[in-house]
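ok, trying the design again with the full structure, not the truncated one.
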């Protein structure tokens, strides 16, 4: 898994690209604070090599808890900026800082 950040000079946003290798998965989405944990509109596109990929514009100077939703199962990003305990989930969530 990987996260790439591209900061724009002309706008207060960061283009964040999420890449998830999941050859056997049918559907992968990114859910988190930035989309109210709703997978609608945050589905990643499956590439020919079996990797799922998607880019989202997120406001800069924020931190977002998030997870991947792979065929209905929550998966943590191993390369997150940091991890934070979430009482509601009862687990640690990866955190993205932009």
């Amino acid at each position: 898994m990987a996260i790439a950040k591209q900061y724009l000079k002309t706008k207060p946003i960061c283009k964040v690209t999420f890449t998830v290798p999941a050859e056997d998965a049918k559907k992968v989405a990114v859910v988190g604070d930035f989309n109210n944990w709703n997978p609608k509109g945050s589905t990643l596109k499956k590439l020919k090599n079996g990797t799922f990929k998607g880019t989202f514009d997120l406001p800069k100077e924020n931190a977002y808890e998030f997870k991947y939703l792979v065929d209905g199962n929550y998966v943590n990003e191993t390369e997150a900026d940091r991890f934070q305990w979430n009482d509601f989930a009862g687990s640690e969530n990866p955190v993205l800082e932009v």
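Keeping the full-length input from now on. The two ends are 18 Å apart (CA to CA).
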